[in-house]
Amino acid sequence: MTYRYGSASSLSVDPGRVALGLSTTDPGTYLDAFTERADVVAAALLLVGRVAATRFYDPMTAAQLAELADPIITTGDGTVRFESLSACCGVAARLDLLADGLDITTQRAGTTNVDLGAGSRRLLAGVLPRDPLHLAVGDTGLLMTTLDGQSHERTVALPTAGSGRWPTCRSWRAT
Questions:
Q1: Max CA-CA distance within the chain?
Q2: What DSSP line would sit under 142-171, residue for residue?
Q3: Is residue 47 part of a domain?
Q4: How far apart are CA 109 and CA 90, in angstroms?
Q5: How many domains does the chain have?
Q6: Which residues, at least 6 apart from 169, have a Cβ–Cβ distance to it below 8 Å?
Q7: What is the CATH number of the domain that holds 53?
Q8: How confident is the model at residue 173 (pLDDT cuts 50, 70, 90)?
Q9: Which structural domain, as residue segments, surrounds residue 156?
Q10: Domain-located, residue 20
Q11: CB-side exposure of 78: number of CA atoms within 13 Å?
Q12: Cβ contacts of residue 5 below 8 Å, gap of 6+?
């Protein structure tokens, strides 16, 4: 068996920060699908993004808080998972889209981290019950398309500060 990676993995060590950039053997699109209930998915994605941007208390530096303010998207095994951790690590949000709620064209295992910006929030807020919502997740980020237009959220570095905090978050342990 031969593995071919799209690029080299990287490790960057700076004072107070370690960043790991992983490469997969099959770069490109992780998911290309339409959602079955676009209005419900859009509302849930807005909530996942809102949790990531909310600070319930302030135990960290501004740089650490900014690093945690982006939802993480994981695909594989017929599921798409959007999850976020509040800036204070006190609240976690997770949206699992199962295969029967998606009309999937392409799906493979992958993880990316995106900044769910104001343009995407406006686009999602306009989705009505019978509207289509197309999601494309890949190395370049998240592309969402609705009847009102499209929004692309670029990939940002996966947080290192919050990754060890997920299991200790009270709301995460409750799920």
A1: 50
A2: EEEEETTEEEEEEB-PPPSTTTTTGGG-HH
A3: yes
A4: 28
A5: 1
A6: 85, 89, 90, 91, 92
A7: 3.10.150.10
A8: very low
A9: 26-173
A10: no
A11: 4
A12: 23, 24, 25
